[in-house]
Amino acid sequence: MIKSFVKKCTLLACSLLLTGAVSAENSFSSFAGAAADFNVLQNGTLTVEGRGVFAGQYAIDNKVIFRGDFVINTDDILSGGLFQDTSARFTINEASLSYRFVGNSILQQVSGFIGRQESQGSDLFVKRYFGIRNFSSDFLSPQLYYAMPGIYSYEGAGLSYVIKMAKPTAFGFYATYDKDLIKEATATTKAEYAPHINLDLRYAFAWDWGALDSGIGVILPIERVDTAGADVIMMLRKVELRTGLATLLEVTGTTSIFLQAGVIKVQVAPPDNAFNITFDDLYLFLEPRFITSYFTYATSFFCLPQEALKNCVYARNPIGFNIMAKSGNFLLAGHTARGGAHFAVSANSLTEPEKNYDVQITPFIDYSFLSGRLSAFAQIRPAMYQNPAEFINVSIGYKTTL
After folding, report:
1. What is the pLDDT of residues 94-109, one digit of tens each?
2. Residue-wise burial string across 104-120, b where 16 or more C-beta atoms lie within 10 A, e elsewhere
3. Is residue 370 left, alpha or beta, with left meaning phi > 0 and alpha meaning psi from -120 to 50?
4. Contact 170/129 with Cβ under 8 angstroms?
């Protein structure tokens, strides 16, 4: 099924390329990457899991824009034989259709989408509308990425409206419908979901020495049964609020500060309208950066929800700090390369950090190869030296623009 879908996507991309070649007003751009994660289990067995990503954009006369972002993750490709079928999970991160109204000084865009679109706090929004350079954090960015993860996502099936001024300043409005899984399906019962409607407002602007992206939203959980147990069309018992911002401030030409902060969910429930917030709903990331002639240094302080760490390769726990040193470009076998390392100390909680802390050292190298970049890193946890599966993990990946 996945092979058939990938084949159809490839044929569609080729047809779009051929169509775009007919008119100079049309354009197609894409990003692709693949990686293999190597791990040795306690019994000495080698496992290899694969990851792949493809993202594409096709624009017609710079007014109609199709976007797609797809991810595939496989199980161990060696367990059943290298040339045998391997179980895999396919995810649509974004599939959207947008129409732009372009004026002399104002740009307006209306979009319909499924999946995720321009997550709050990511650098994707300001790159798309302001054309500024990446300001993503190396610590937060996954190995295969073209945009930094956000604080929370505009996720589900929805509509968005963005208006960009000439300053540059932009406002965004998002309305989405989504369902959260609350109970897995069994042999005798169906899976249960909790539907909700999300309404969000976004404000972003850029200037010569930085950029800011902020947002605030409301989550409306929908219930189908009232207090008496009778079925109803829709019932709202509570309201959940969320907010977040990301900003980059360039203090000098060699020093900058990056900040991500927000609250993923604050529950307000009657009758007393009390605020209900948990530690896992808070998001805080602060990173001063220093650039010299030969190296880039960054020190990160973080308090993140577990969901934000899902794709982070440099730390395992939600609270801690990370120190990164990265070289500038240097020549290696006739190609440019960069290298460095992360040193992270993290804990599960602030109450007893000495009992559940983790230390991880992650050396990495990034090497230009053909039209893309070849990357490799090793996750080393010194305290786990007696357990090979936890002591060291190695990953090799490649990403390119097409």
Report:
1. 999 999 998 888 999 9
2. eeebebebebbbbbbbb
3. left
4. yes
Q: Which of 224, 329, 239 is nearest to 276 (CA)?
A: 239
| CA distance readout (Å), 235 to 177, 181, 191, 193 | 15, 19, 21, 15
82: tokens are: 């290298």
Strand partners, 198: 176, 219
pLDDT digits (tens, 9 = 90+) for 181-195: 777 777 777 777 788
∠ CA(5), CA(156), CA(399), 5° rounding? 50
Question: How far, in Å, CA of 72 to CA of 89, rounded?
Answer: 6
- Distance of alpha carbon 262 from alpha carbon 202, whole angstroms: 13
Q: Phi/psi at 351 (nearest 5 deg)? A: -70, -45
Rg (CA), the chain: 23
Contacts of 280 (CB under 8 A, 6+ apart): 305, 306, 318
319 has which bridge partners?
303, 347
